[in-house]
Structure formats: C-alpha cells, structure tokens
C-alpha cells in the first residue's frame, strides 16, 4: 500500500491567527480556475503569510479566480472580502453558512474544514431556536450523525482546517464518538434518579467557572442531553416554562 500524499496540484500552507486555535490551513488548487480554499483571518501576519505563499507559487492575490469557504468563522473567512475585492474571484460557500467538506473520490481525499481535526475535538455551541421555530437546533446530534457518515466514506487522506493531515479517519472518529459517549454517561450518572433543570445539572458537574467557561459548560451539557434524548436515554418535561431532564432507569 502506498502512503497517501497530498496531490501535487494542491499547495498546502498555513497562516497565523490571533485566536487560541492557532494557525489555519489554506489550500491552493493550481490550475483553471486558480482556487483558494479558505481565506484566513483579517490579521496582518496572515495577510503577509498568504501573499508570500502565493508568491512562492508565482501568483499574486489578484490572480485568484475562485475562493471556496468551508465555514463562516473569522479564522477561515476574515480576509475573504478583501481577497475578492482585489481579485474579483468567484466565492463558493454553503448558503446557510454551515460547514462544508470537499471530497474527491478518485483520490479518496477529504478536505474536512473544521469538521474533523486531529488534535482538537469540536464542541458544537448551543444556539437559540431559528426565527419562527420553538426547538433549538441539535448541533451535537447533527455533528455526531455527520461524523458517522464520514466514517463510512472511503478516505485515504483527510486535510483539515487546522493541524496535520489525518491518515486514519475511522480511528479518529471512533475516538471522538467514545469521548462524547463518556461525557454523556458522566452526565447521566450525575443526574441519578432526579428530574433536574439544565442549570442544576451544570452546577453539579462544574463549579467556579468564569462566564465564558460557564457558557461552554452549559453548551456542552445541553448538547449531550439532546443526544441522550434522541437516543431515548433521558426524557425532557416542560412545566411552567421550566424544562427538567430525567434519566431513564434501566429496564
Ligand atoms: Zn477553524
């Protein structure tokens, strides 16, 4: 078996970001149309690194003909408007700014954006219901379903939005699913036999968090409760505008 490598037409480089996530990977597909996957952040060191990377291949920003954006986060698309202004490049992105991955079946190549990263576990954030809706989106549930879908795909090499290439996507996805299962079980154990509000569950699991980490903790707990609900392992009852969760006892 040959070791999977990045195709020669795909020039890979990373640019710095001012965010805790660190540098972001950009991919330049050489040929017609000259295509850049993700733009990087609006940040001087990133602008400089991008200009230099293009120059290394003999291009300028003005030569870009197409810009594909994997998702609408500032580390990936902050520079997009500027690049388009300078080049007139056509922009391709998901209409609802959801995350997209690009798959090349002949080369068994996946450009995974932030969907699958080797060293960082994605933690989808809680969101309010969409306008006109009463239910919140179930982002963790959707993310887990998409991970399972990607696990079934025939992929030799995954090129992510951050960090090094991934050569065993199935092992990594197994690891991620096991991680969330462990978290979910921990929440179930903490709940015991009581009917608790999300806030009560979060307070039992964590204490002394600063506001940002408190929000992340709530986000994580709601995500896992929604997943447990879909799996039939917890029930949710709303009374007087307050929702309480209860673990289903073993049959
Ligand atoms: Zn990112």
Fold blueprint:
Layout: E1 10-15, E2 24-29, E3 35-37, H1 44-56, E4 66-68, H2 74-77, H3 80-87, E5 90-92, E6 102-104, E7 109-113, H4 139-152, E8 157-160, H5 169-191, H6 198-205, H7 211-230, E9 234-239, E10 242-247
Parallel strand pairs: 3-4, 4-5, 7-8
Antiparallel strand pairs: 1-2, 2-3, 6-7, 9-10
Bound molecules: zinc ion (ZN).
Zinc ion binds at residues 21, 24, 73, 75-76, 114, 161-162.
How far the N terminus sits from the C terminus, by CA atoms, comes to 48 Å
Uncertain parts: none
- The CATH topology name of the domain at 1-98 reads Metallo-beta-lactamase, Chain A
- The SS-based structural class is alpha/beta
Question: How many distinct helices?
Answer: 7
CATH architecture of the domain at 1-98: 4-Layer Sandwich
| Gyration radius, in Å | 21 Å
Oligomer: single chain
Strand order of the largest sheet: 1-2-3-4-5
| Strand percentage | 15-25%
CATH superfamily of the domain at 1-98: Ribonuclease Z/Hydroxyacylglutathione hydrolase-like
Q: What is the helix content?
A: 25-40%
CATH class of the domain at 1-98: Alpha Beta
Q: Sum up the overall morphology in one term.
A: elongated
Largest sheet: 5 strands, mixed
Give the number of DSSP strands.
10
Roughly what is the average pLDDT, rounded to an integer?
92
> Ligands in the structure?
zinc ion
């Amino acid at each position: 078996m040959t070791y999977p490598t990045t195709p020669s037409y795909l020039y890979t480089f990373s640019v710095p970001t001012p965010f805790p996530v660190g540098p972001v990977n950009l991919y330049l597909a050489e040929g017609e149309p000259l295509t850049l996957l993700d733009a990087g952040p609006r940040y001087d060191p990133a602008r400089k690194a991008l200009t230099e990377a293009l120059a290394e291949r003999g291009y300028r920003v003005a030569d870009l003909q197409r810009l594909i954006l994997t998702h609408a986060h500032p580390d990936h698309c902050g520079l997009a408007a500027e690049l388009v202004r300078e080049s007139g490049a056509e922009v391709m992105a998901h209409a609802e700014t959801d995350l997209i991955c690009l798959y090349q079946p002949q080369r068994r190549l996946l450009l995974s954006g932030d969907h699958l990263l080797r060293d960082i576990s994605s933690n989808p954030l809680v969101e309010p219901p969409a306008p006109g809706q009463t239910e919140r989106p179930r982002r963790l549930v959707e993310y887990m379903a998409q991970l399972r879908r990607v696990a079934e795909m025939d992929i030799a090499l995954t090129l992510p939005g951050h960090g090094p290439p991934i050569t065993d996507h199935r092992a990594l996805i197994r690891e991620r699913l096991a991680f969330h299962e462990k978290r979910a079980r921990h929440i179930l154990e903490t709940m015991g036999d009581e009917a608790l509000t999300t806030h009560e569950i979060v307070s039992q699991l964590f204490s002394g968090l600063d506001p940002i980490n408190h929000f992340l903790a709530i986000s994580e707990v709601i995500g896992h409760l929604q997943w447990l609900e879909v799996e039939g392992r917890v029930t949710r009852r709303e009374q007087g505008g307050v929702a309480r969760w209860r673990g289903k006892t073993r049959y």
